[in-house]
Automatic annotation (TrEMBL):
Database matches in Pfam families: Peptidase_M16, Peptidase_M16_C
Keywords, ordered alphabetically: Hydrolase, Metalloprotease, Protease, Signal
The keyword Protease is annotated on this UniProt entry: yes
UniProt name for this protein: M16 family metallopeptidase
Domain of life from the UniProt record: Bacteria
Biological classification of the source: Bacteria, Pseudomonadati, Pseudomonadota, Alphaproteobacteria, Acetobacterales
Family membership: Belongs to the peptidase M16 family.
Signal peptide (from-to): 1-28
Domain Peptidase M16 N-terminal: residue ranges: 60-198
Domain Peptidase M16 C-terminal: 215-398
Length: 475
């Protein structure tokens, strides 16, 4: 009996998507056949989406998935917290809340009630790059949610009479998520210290409290009229609906939204000098462990030296991507930290950051933790980059992880919609495993030098009251 490894199971899951709906005999033959190679899987599109642009400028992607009789309907506006005007941080998020206050064909609060009555669920979110609205419903209810969402984009009421009550909801959300959490406050202050309090990357997505209070009704209306246009939006629908029927329904509702152009993102470049390169905060409410962070300005697929974006994804994984990574071996297995991690996202609009974060053990002095973490970064640079084996391992794990996206109904809309909304082609998602497999050790080494060795950076400590921060360690 052949041993079924985790990797083989992932390959089989990917293969199953291609044979769904066939006969039991065909399924049995596919199960008996050897799984396709990782290289073969990397050559396939992850989702096989169909992309069209309606006459009004709306880009629409359709992913047919037949594993359950449901659909996921995601509408994205190519404007998030990064597009908030100066002095009005949080306006994109505020507007997201107000778009549940009714439109020409749907009363205030009725949108979510209708979806719930149909057994579905809906919500919305604001990131730095996009504002998104989504619904998961039974497949035959696509017509309903498409009608309501298109109507919301075309004729949202945004009633002034409901603005103050919603402002209080947002302020309470900020108080609960940020104000009550020492770590959330620290990370908010750290972003402002590194990028600048009024830089688009340094402002909190939910907004500074005083600026949330300053947003007026006319500000919301101006943002809505400028940004909520078909040419500045993306619609992605995944699920059990045939192509012809899908395009008929989407064209009927979304094609009726008045045309409007794409709106260029006017984002400032990174500051040449970090405003506050070292941030130390002692919080008396902190009862748990301290936090150490270092962050470097980093290029992405849309800004700076874009050739480094994919190698930085691999670098992030091998440096701080869980067990087996360099930082995990040195700090967690070395008994200095409870947790470590590295983060980087190349699929963003404009510049990004490459971060490492450490949660030390309580009994370990902060200076030992910072020295050990930065020693790993320095060792990586001094050795001329990672080894071939490290790069190969990270690529294998990253590629295998991409296959998990095939199982979630909302994965295709989130990944495709997010990429299209920041200006990336759909191939950036469909063939992401192939791109990652093409990354070489030398490319990872070059990206490490460019970012970890040369880019402006900031560091910070969040510590309990009375604990002194160590001297800064730089590579």
């Amino acid at each position: 009996m052949t041993c079924l490894t985790r990797r083989a199971a992932l390959q089989a899951a990917a293969a199953a998507a291609a044979i769904a709906g066939t006969t039991p005999e065909a399924l049995a033959q596919a199960a008996a056949a050897p799984p396709p190679s990782a290289a073969a899987l990397a050559e396939r599109p992850l989702f096989g989406a169909t992309l069209r642009t309606l006459p009004n400028g709306l880009r629409v992607a359709h992913v047919e998935q037949r594993r359950a009789p449901v659909v996921a309907h995601y509408a994205y506006v190519a404007a998030g917290g990064g597009e908030d005007p100066p002095g009005l941080s949080g306006i994109a998020h505020y507007l997201e809340h107000m778009l549940f206050k009714g439109s020409s064909r749907v009363a205030s609060g009725e949108f979510s009630r209708r979806v719930a009555r149909e057994g579905g669920n809906d919500n919305a979110f604001t990131s730095r790059d996009v504002t998104g609205y989504f619904q998961h419903v039974e497949a035959s209810r696509l017509d309903l949610v498409a009608m309501m969402e298109a109507d919301r984009f075309a004729s949202a009421l945004i009633p002034a009479a409901e603005m103050e009550s919603e402002r209080q909801v947002i302020l309470e959300e900020r108080a609960q998520r940020t104000g009550s959490s020492p770590r959330a406050l620290f990370f908010e202050e750290f972003a402002a210290a590194m990028w600048g309090r009024q830089h688009w990357h340094g402002r909190p997505i939910i907004g500074w409290e005083e600026e949330i209070r300053a947003i007026r009704h006319e500000d919301l209306m101006a943002f809505f009229r400028a940004r909520y246009a078909p040419g500045n939006a993306v619609l992605v629908v995944a699920g059990a609906v045939d192509g012809p029927a899908f395009w008929d329904e989407i064209t009927e509702h979304w094609g009726a939204v008045p045309a409007g152009p794409a709106v260029p993102r006017d984002r400032a470049p990174p500051p040449r000098e970090i405003p506050i390169p070292r941030l130390v905060k002692n919080d008396p409410r902190l009862r748990g462990e301290a936090t150490f962070i270092r962050s470097w300005q980093a290029p992405t697929l849309t800004a700076g030296e874009t050739r480094h974006a994919d190698p930085l994804e691999v670098l992030r994984h091998l440096l701080g991507g869980g067990q087996g990574s360099r930082l995990h071996r040195a700090l967690v297995e070395g008994g200095l930290a409870l947790a470590v991690g590295a983060s980087y996202d190349g699929d963003t609009a404009s510049w990004g950051d490459f971060d490492i974060a450490v949660t030390p053990r309580r009994e370990v002095p902060p200076e030992r933790v910072e020295q050990a973490a930065m020693a790993e970064v320095k060792r990586l640079l001094d050795e001329g980059g990672p080894t071939e084996a490290e790069v190969a391992r990270s690529i294998r794990q990253l590629s295998a992880g991409a296959l998990l996206a095939l199982d979630g109904l909302g994965a295709a809309p989130r990944m495709i919609g997010g990429a299209l909304a920041v200006g990336l082609p759909i191939e950036a998602v469909e063939f992401w495993p192939r791109r990652i497999r093409a990354v070489t050790r030398d490319q990872v080494a070059a990206a490490a030098v460019t970012v970890l060795g040369q880019a402006p950076s900031a560091s910070g400590w969040l510590l309990p009251e009375g604990v002194q921060a160590p001297a800064e360690v730089r590579v």
